[in-house]
What we know:
By secondary structure, the chain is of the alpha/beta class. Helices cover 31% and strands 22% of the residues. Strand 3, helix 1 (41-52) and strand 4 (55-60) form a beta-alpha-beta unit.
Amino acid sequence: MTGSMITLDTPDGTMECYDATPDGDARGAVIVIQEAFGVNEHIQDVTRRVAAAGYRAVAPALFHRAGGGTAGYDDFASVLPLFEGVTDDGVLVDVDATTLHLRAQGFDDRKIGIVGFCFGGRVTFLVAARRAIGAAVGFYGGGIASKGMLPFDPLIGEAATLRTPWLGLFGDADAGIPVEAVEALRGALASAPVATEVVRFPGAEHGFHCDVRASFHPQAAAAGWAHTLGWFEAHLA
């Protein structure tokens, strides 16, 4: 498996991406969407894990409109300036540019999945609602069922018109995403025309999959990752 930075063109300028290629033939491709802290070392590591599972993996750096960069996990004050110019429409532009890149590598949309964490978890729902690709997985995506900390509108109203199979993974101890909101989302997804699933992990906080955060929950992280790979195996096959 190899990983490197590449640059893609978008209508709003160039965008850096971390691109990881598996050994041998890829079984599909996966777009990895960053947390609110950018395409940092952890997201690059997750991208390599996706590649190690046999997928071509690309993590687009969505903060390019504000000049790019990352913020530390203990420095939330530095996060909001990175979001300057980031909108739902702009995120879709960036995901479309990444999808176009993967198409050029030989992957059709049915073979392309997306996984995201935190802010990226919400992005996966946005993409699932407005784009038809193979599969989507969101880890603790705030702002889907109710207003989150970031300036984006809830997306639960689009649950009934999802176009991409979506798996949502949430921790019951997440202070920013109440269990009630997760269950409201589960209920709304019952009318979706594609496959959906919501999984809750008791005792897991926000960021439970990130092994460099204090909220890391090894058991929930391992189970969530197994669910993720199983979802891709089922829907990208």
